Amino acid sequence: MKKVLKNLDAYIAGAMMIVTILLVIVNVITRKLFNYIIIWSEEIATSCFVYSVFIGAAYAYRKHQHVGVDLLVERLPAGARRAVHLITSALLVVINGYITMLSVQFIQSSWIKRMPITKLPSSVVSTALVIGFGLSYCDVIFGKKLTPDEIVEIVKEKGIVGMGGATFPTYVKLKPGKPIDAVLINGSECEPYLTADHRVLLEFADDIVYGLRAMMKAVAAPEGVILIEDNKPDAVALMEEKVKPYDNIRVVAAKTQYPEGAEKMLIKKVMGRQVPSGKLPADVGCVVSNTSTAKAISDAIQKGLPLVERVVSVTGEYIKNPGNYIVKLGTNVQEIIDHCGGVTGDDVVLKMGGPMMGAPIKDTNVPIIKGSNGIIAIAADHTEEKECIKCGRCVDVCPMELQPLEIYKLGQLGDAEGLLKLNV
After folding, report:
1. How far is it, in rounded angstroms, from Cα 329 to Cα 318?
2. Strand order in 249-254's β-sheet?
3. What pLDDT was estimated at residue 209?
4. Are 374 and 406 in contact (CB under 8 A)?
5. What is the Cα–Cα distance from 317 to 311, expressed in whole angstroms?
6. Which parts of 161-278 fold into alpha helices (H)?
7. Helix axes 196-203, 291-303, angle to 10 degrees
8. Under 8 Å between Cβ of 290 and 197
9. What does the pLDDT read at residue 64?
10. Residues linked to residue 253 through DSSP beta bridges, in sequence order
11. What is the pLDDT of residue 315?
């Protein structure tokens, strides 16, 4: 019942559309089969259709599902975008208020007029304008703030996932079922070649802060942290400027090293907490999200935009025109490579992702998906496998504190129990 009341305008608009369709279908059937016309059906169907259109439009505006042309606005600086948003909101208040007033006057003047068949007042149809524009006017003036549950529902409805590569559903993260101390934005991007997150930080800083604050509200976290590696000083400086108005958000510049972007490493670096094996960040009071995910949440809430595009790094020494591109999900990888001038060279390996964790692409006739943060073209590796000399150097330098030597040995022996003990 609570859901019905919350979306009553949508249910009314839907019901009116159903009545319209049914009346039209029934009238067509009776006319064709029985040569009989339901004379009052046209007036009722028209009235219902008008109500469906105007109340439905008000619902679409409230849910940010209306059509908007923001091609030019998106290319403006952040300050100019805010100014355009304020001017647009002011114009909407004036226009909706003015049309609502005119509609009321029109109803008053047409009250004595009657429809020819049903004899209902003509103002019955005109009332749809008052309701539709009146609801839109109220939404602009009194639009309420979203509750945590509403934020989570929007994130779920818009299909937002972790865009760092894992594509874990973000709405699940925002329903941890336990206290959260901090939401962390992972802007480290430690893989060589990839700079998509760096570009997002520079181009959509306001959206990232908005998305972070939305996530903090959803999980009731008292603190927000944006972690950026220190080889991105421009992004660090910009984000520090953007978070100045918020006492509970800070920017951390971390040492550039692999794999700083790993979730558990990031939590250890920023919060000084160790995520136990088999546990999740929420078990130590943290939620970690990618910069592009934060932007996607901002787009979902402010624009009603589902996750239909992402920034992709197309790079490597063998890409003719490397760069970062906003790409629609489902775009063919070969078309993107062709757009960038193609691959120069023969002995080349294409990977989806970075050189460390990326997967080789044997067939470029594949689509960009939500976790596709990069396409790289690098030299093929012809290093020959050699026998391990058991120097132990891999154990010393492994940032995840693994034991590659022991893992290799147990793997060769097929010792599943031994591998389990090493958390493999």
Report:
1. 24
2. 249-254, 223-229, 182-187, 286-290
3. 93
4. no
5. 20
6. 170-173, 196-203, 205-219, 233-242, 263-271
7. 40
8. yes
9. 66
10. 228
11. 93
User: Strands 359-360 and 286-290, how do they pair?
Assistant: unpaired
Please give the biggest Cα pair distance in the chain.
99
- In angstroms, the CA 43 to CA 360 distance is 63
Q: Which two tokens stand for residue 27?
A: 């009238």
| Amino acid, single-letter form, for residue 300 | A
- The pLDDT tens digits of the residues spanning 342-357 come to 988 888 889 998 888 8
Cα 376 from chain centroid (whole Å): 24
Considering the entire predicted model, what is its pTM? 0.75
- State the amino acid at position 65 in one-letter form: Q
User: Smallest Cα–Cα separation from 284: which of 179, 194, 370?
Assistant: 179
Secondary structure tally for the chain: helices H, strands E: 16, 9
Nearest residue to 292 (alpha-carbon basis) of 160, 191, 190: 160
Region 105-133: what's the mean pLDDT?
80
How far is C-alpha 218 from the geometric centre of its chain's CA atoms?
15
The identity of residue 72, as a single letter, is: L
State yes or no: cis peptide before 259, omega within 30 of 0.
yes
Q: State the amino acid at position 339 in one-letter form.
A: H
> Burial, 167: exposed, middle or buried (Cβ in 10 Å; 0-12, 13-18, 19+)?
middle
Do residues 173 and 183 touch, judged by C-beta distance below 8 A? no
Q: What is the chain's length?
A: 424
Contact 419, 407 (CB under 8 A): yes
* Structure tokens, 103: 């509609």
pLDDT for the residue 250: 92
* Amino acid occupying residue 165: G
Residue found by looking up tokens 């059937």 in the block:
29
Model pLDDT for residues 136-193, shown as the tens digit of each residue = 767 766 655 788 988 999 999 999 998 887 788 999 999 998 899 999 999 887 788 8
CA distance 331 to 352: 13
Segment 311-327 shows an average pLDDT of 93
Mean pLDDT of 30-44: 86
Distance CA 297, CA 302 (A): 8
